[in-house]
Amino acid sequence: MKKLFPGGIMLLLCCTCWLLPAHAQFSLSAQLRTRTELRDGQGAPLPEGTSPAVFTSQRTRLSAGFTASRIRLGLAIQDVRVWGQDASTINRTTTANNNGLMLHEAWAEVLLTDTASARRRLLLKIGRQELLYDDSRLLGNLDWLQQARRHDALVLKYEQDAWMLHAGGAFNQNKEGAAGTVYDPTPPGNYPGNTNGGRNYKSLQFLYAGRKLHNGNVSFLFLADQFSRSYTDTVDNTPVTKWEDATRNRMTTGLYFNNTFRRVTLTAAGYYQFGKNVEGRNLSATLLSAAVQYACSKAFSIGAGADYTSGGGSGNTSHAFDPLYGTPHKFWGNMDYFYVASGFGNRGLQDYYLGAKLKAGSKWLLTAAAHEFFSASTLPSIDGRTTPSRRFGTEADLTAVFSLTPMIAFEGGYSYFRSTESLTSVGVKNISNPDHSSNWAYLMVSIKPSWLFK
């Protein structure tokens, strides 16, 4: 059987290629990505005397693509697990909520316009897919997370020369129903509904308009997402959350700019969020971002930037900005203290950072960054009189990537966070007797073979 299995795979692939219509192509790729981590205060400081965590997680992904006249198909199946979570002799003891085998992508993209028109294209992409726009700050695939992020959505795309206009939407339900559209946004198991620790949306709509520049792009985004309303009922003297058909509507809109002028790359973004948040409070929040990168040479560059997300609130109005469905790990420090599953009290964030990047030869890439974090709003008093400092702490990140071949890469990193009493206070992370020196280190191996059949 061991000798026949590889031969069977090759026979299947050969038959598939033989059956392809003219001018069609089939692609197949795989990824095996293991990541060993030492977490000694990753996400939030640990209490004094707590032992650090050490584990290895693994993503195994198989992707296939098919392209023919006026159609593209994409499929990605992945399994995400921690080494040792399953019994080695039988899988019936595996906890259902830990089952990491899932369909990550399954979509079709259809060209609706005449194939003779190369300048203008109208496309429809439907199915399970990644939504990835601009720098992934608000809409990204969150690839750092082993399970990544995807949406069950429909996207209509109009593209002409350097311009693009995309309109998309999604509508979630737990199962097929005979009546009503009640949606329970609570995911199974001990997992947050989204990266920021909130609920899954019931529905989502967005409009994206962008234009390519000489060495960058400028874009406009309007996104609305709706969340199920709820109330608390009592069942057998136990409080139970009940979900309703009605929803609360949140809207986010703004501009993004990125372009390179000789050796200088400028990036800026501004977004405003309004409507209702998931708790039903009025929402008025902002995100502002600016960064500059200077290429000292082809191999070495340095940069600096600042991010601001509003927080806090007054009365029935919240000023806490939610960065939607982006990739926080890319922006607010590698240790994921902010806008990830571990919350920080909706206080908002000021992040001032410096960074450097060195491409040493054709195989090495080294990066370093330093962040100084502050609250964007006043923190609650500790003893009724003393107002804590807004300073949250300092983080330093070091990362090294070695590409052995185009298909094989090794990556390692180390981060250190020195937190303040303000960060661990009751109104923010709420950690008793915290260790203010936190560490995180990882080693990742990524193997990505690919094949193309025409």
Automatic annotation (TrEMBL):
Recorded protein name is Alginate export protein
Domain Alginate export: where? 27-381
Provenance organism: Chitinophaga japonensis
- What InterPro entries does the record tag this protein with? Alginate_export_dom
Leader sequence range is: 1-24
Q: Which UniProt keywords apply?
A: Signal
Pfam families, per database record: Alginate_exp
